[in-house]
Amino acid sequence: MQHKRGKTEGREEPVVVVREATAGDLSLILTFIKELAEFERLSHAVVATEEALYESLFGDRSYAHALIGEYGGEPVGFAVYFYNFSTFQGRHGLYIEDIYIQPEKRGLGIGKMLLEHCARIAVSAGCARMEFAVLEWNPARRFYEAIGAEGLDDWIIYRLSSEKLKALAGI
Amino acid sequence: MQHKRGKTEGREEPVVVVREATAGDLSLILTFIKELAEFERLSHAVVATEEALYESLFGDRSYAHALIGEYGGEPVGFAVYFYNFSTFQGRHGLYIEDIYIQPEKRGLGIGKMLLEHCARIAVSAGCARMEFAVLEWNPARRFYEAIGAEGLDDWIIYRLSSEKLKALAGI
């Protein structure tokens, strides 16, 4: 599935394309993940490798999916999503784990095209909703709210990591 | 996989069991989902049916899983989880969508046994972390923090629901 936009009213403008990622994009995806982590001031949290991403995105038991956003033939951003599940809805939803556009290519509508693409995938897959987590200080919140996303301010994500998780498991 | 506790120091106390749910538990699970929604003041949000839950939990393409907590042979709570994915980790994690113990059976350690069971599943599956979302006013937050869970206060979950999702998808 591809989604294109370009050449409007006789004026040549670089074509924007959203396409599914392939295994050939792994190095690029890891670069984008690191750039996003840097923007989120979370570089220390990145331990992903190309091998691990291959398994998760393209391996036999993969269940996460990546999209690449291109501008004038150059990849400039990406999105990674998977399906989550709502007991209240009794059905799955689409969860966007990451969405990122390189700083110099923001404001050109590429992020919106990635989100639109995700929304079409979600609707096609029978999802009732699409969700993602955003850092409180991220100015993109205004953009997400403008396209109709609602911030669930009354929910807090809790996380049990590595050692604490093992301790609870008694391992 | 089952997890039991009972009969300590000569004193008979009801046995606590955590077991995997089966299709025979669907009506019970839907009841628990509705009770949880009532506790969370979100009853209006429950549209799940037994049929939809069957597909998600036990159907050919199921990817969510349910556990039942029993006290003295009686089911008194449940947990539903699925696997999410972290690009920073490059691997999946375990996400607990729901965890619920009936009010009169709280404080008996059944919820902790459900969480421990989830933690063992997570570690066995190679997950680096386990996550769940908690309502800000839920007193269980203290319990989650006591077992080592960290509240990610700087993240906000955003949600695009039904009509807004379709609008973005252009459908």
Structure report:
Two copies of one chain form a homodimer. Chain A has 171 residues and is α+β, with helices and mostly antiparallel strands. Chain A is 31% helix and 33% strand. Chain A is built from five helices and eight strands. Chain A has a six-stranded mixed beta sheet, sandwiched between helices. In chain A, a hairpin with a 4-residue loop joins β4 (74-86) and β5 (91-101). Chain A starts with a strand and ends with a helix. In chain A, 40% of the residues are buried. Chains A and B meet through α1, α2, β4, β5 and α3 of A and α1, α2, β4, β5 and α3 of B.
Oligomer: homodimer
First-residue to last-residue Cα separation of chain A: 44 Å
The largest pleated sheet of chain A is described as: 6 strands, mixed
Average per-residue pLDDT of chain A, rounded, comes to: 93
In terms of DSSP E residues, the strand content of chain A is: 25-35%
**Helical residue percent band of chain A:** 25-40%
